[in-house]
């Protein structure tokens, strides 16, 4: 594991030969989330949040960083000390076996496979806590995200102004790093009581 801002990260290889370091998002990561958000274009922010968002409030940052590892979890990604992306899942309260997934990637780092790798790294965590399916809501204009989802075999359907798709967690391609490394870090950093839910 590497040290990145005095917090351990897991090195994850990307298809083009680059390497990113990932770590679970925790409550003290407001700076990482803020930096990622500030370096996203207006269009990328709109596609991520489905509305114009100029800045993140303290309430937003709290929502985006307070994770319990079971109902809410996120990976943050860094390359050369720079925050480049965040991917998270949030379990649906009315469908506890399904979780909504959202991804935000800094524009300068689009097309490097970061989003694809982050979604695949979410898979083992979701499986550990009993989440069986990922759900994705995407604007039709968000071509990079739609391409990403096609690459992991997610079939999208129109639902009003958005496209919606689901995929079984066990049908995702495996993560590009040992799943045991991912789960060990989650259990050490996020919550020592994270365990598989019957």
Write a brief caption for the model.
This protein has 198 residues and is of the alpha+beta class. The chain has helices spanning 30-38, 42-49, 58-65, 114-128, 143-151, 179-189, and strands at 2-4, 7-13, 19-24, 72-79, 82-91, 98-105, 133-138, 155-159, 162-168.
Outline the structure in words.
A nine-stranded mixed sheet has the order 1-2-3-4-5-6-7-9-8, sandwiched between helices. The protein has helices spanning 30-38, 42-49, 58-65, 114-128, 143-151, 179-189, and strands at 2-4, 7-13, 19-24, 72-79, 82-91, 98-105, 133-138, 155-159, 162-168. The chain has six helices and nine strands; from the N terminus they run βββαααβββαβαββα. The protein has 198 residues and is α+β, with helices and mostly antiparallel strands. The protein has a single domain, classed as Aminopeptidase, CATH 3.40.630.30. Helix 4 packs across helix 6. A hairpin with a 6-residue loop joins strand 5 and strand 6. The longest helix has 15 residues, at 114-128.
